[in-house]
Design brief:
By secondary structure, the protein is of the alpha+beta class. It has 3 helices and 5 strands.
């Protein structure tokens, strides 16, 4: 992964974790974080995009970062890999949506 993108992802998450509105959800996210890893994600209409996994799975769900949009998304594991389910926003909110 590019150093700039890695730094961006880490900075966004660190900013959320500094003063979270929901400290319990923030701690759960912190415990689930993984080093960002490139992954192909399927979106509505069969569109595939390169994104970055930022959490371990929580059941069939995981949080990914969409660099083209600049926000996080909750994905569910499908038969062809992660599938965007339309829950977008900050990392804590996406992770806490499960």
């Amino acid at each position: 992964m590019g150093d700039d993108l890695s730094a961006t992802i880490h900075a966004l998450i660190a900013a959320e974790l500094r003063d979270p509105a929901d400290p319990v959800a923030a701690e759960e996210l912190r415990a689930a974080l993984v080093e960002p890893e490139e992954v192909e994600v399927q979106f509505a209409g069969g569109i595939m995009m390169t994104c970055w996994t930022v959490t371990a799975r929580k059941g069939p769900y995981r949080v990914i970062y969409l660099p083209s949009a600049g926000y996080f998304s909750l994905c569910v594991e499908g038969p062809f890999g992660p599938l965007d389910i339309g829950v977008h926003g900050n990392a804590i909110g996406c992770f806490d949506s499960v």
